[in-house]
Amino acid sequence: MDKDKMRAMADRVFRDVAGGMATALAFVGTETGLFRAMAGRGPMSIADVAAASGLEARYVEEWLKGMVSAGYLDYEAAAETFTLPDEHAFLLSSEGTDHFMGGMFAMVPPLLGVAPRVAESFRRGGGVPFADFAPECRHAIDLMNRGNYEHRLVDYWLKQLPEVTARLAAGGRALDVGCGRGYVPLALKKAFPAAECVGVDPDRASIAEARAAAQAAGLTPRFEDVTSDALADTAPFDLISLCDVLHDLPSPLDVLRGLRARLAPEGVLLVIEPRVSDRLEENINPMATMFYGFSTFHCLTQSLAHGGAGLGACLGPTRTQALFSAAGYGSATLLDIKSPTNLFYAVRA
Questions:
Q1: Which of 25, 46, 87, 135 has the fewest CB atoms below 10 angstroms from its CB?
Q2: Which residues of 234-265 are buried (b: 16+ CB within 10 A; e: fewer)?
Q3: Architecture of domain 3-93
Q4: Where in the chain is the domain with CATH 1.10.10.10?
């Protein structure tokens, strides 16, 4: 055997386990407010961070040292101080913005929580339905996506579809499928108060949280805990959105066909999917690795739990476009939207 190759693999294992530990530490940093406590404060001692965060000093000390080792914090040895650089704080302590990355840390614990059941599904088939994930999974999805929906959906993404925004502004209708906690319908209703905005999701807990969020915001989108095919509303929609949902569906073709029937004559189906290549050799990078992990422990297993298609998160543009064609849509355009994580499709009947 090639000993250099063996040593390189050992180093990779250490790096990957270290990455898992760094993710866990960063999760603690976001959940407890440690990153927020350090943001904009410059060099801080252990006692400073413990006092600013209100947390136990001994835990704070170990966390600080681990985050220095992982490269999240800077350390000044002579003064024994720790600094969260402004550039890091921009990404780690900015919850609610379109550049906050802390939601990705929050996704890992609930996914690892179902990992033993997913491993068993490798042997026996089936999978883990969304209802069996811990409530923290909904929280993590919210953290990952909320800022984008609130700050980019209307002001950037939908500007690529001016004919749709004009109809919504004039009192059109929008439907978000798989709405989760409802931040897409909420953002649409806030931007287009005359529009009728509807969100559907079969997860009752998510819909309850969406309704509570709407009430707190003083907005009036309509939320229903049903699948899109069970929605009694038969009037056509000017905009239907599937935001990071298509690849999760047990029956994606059936859903796409049903949504095509619900589109207004000039309506648009907006589909957002992970940004990956069709070619595996072009997906050998950290982003795709993350997506394959999320897919195995969340997206794929949900679909297979219902005997579904099991598309997985790394569907790629060619297979995505083929689904639109098979569902009978007349055109599907890949929108020119800059995003490191997503691809955007405008699909028309």
A1: 87
A2: eebbbbbbbbbbbbbbbbbeebbebbbebbbe
A3: Orthogonal Bundle (1.10)
A4: 3-93
Cα separation, 135 vs 151, whole angstroms? 25
Tokens of 148: 């984008």
Contact 341, 276 (CB under 8 A): no
**Which H or E run includes 105?**
helix 102-113
Query: pLDDT of the chain along its 349 residues, tens only?
Result: 999 999 999 999 999 999 999 999 999 999 999 999 999 999 999 999 999 999 999 999 999 999 999 999 999 999 999 999 999 999 999 999 999 999 999 999 999 999 999 999 999 999 999 999 999 999 999 999 999 999 999 999 999 999 999 999 999 999 999 999 999 999 999 999 999 999 999 999 999 999 999 999 999 999 999 999 999 988 999 999 999 999 999 999 999 999 999 999 999 999 999 999 999 999 999 999 999 999 999 999 999 999 999 999 999 999 999 999 999 999 999 999 999 999 999 999 9
Q: Which part of the chain is CATH 3.40.50.150?
A: 106-348
For residue 99, the one-letter residue type is H
Q: Which CATH class is domain 106-348?
A: alpha beta
- Say what the alpha-carbon torsion angle 136, 244, 19, 75 is, to the nearest 10 degrees: -80
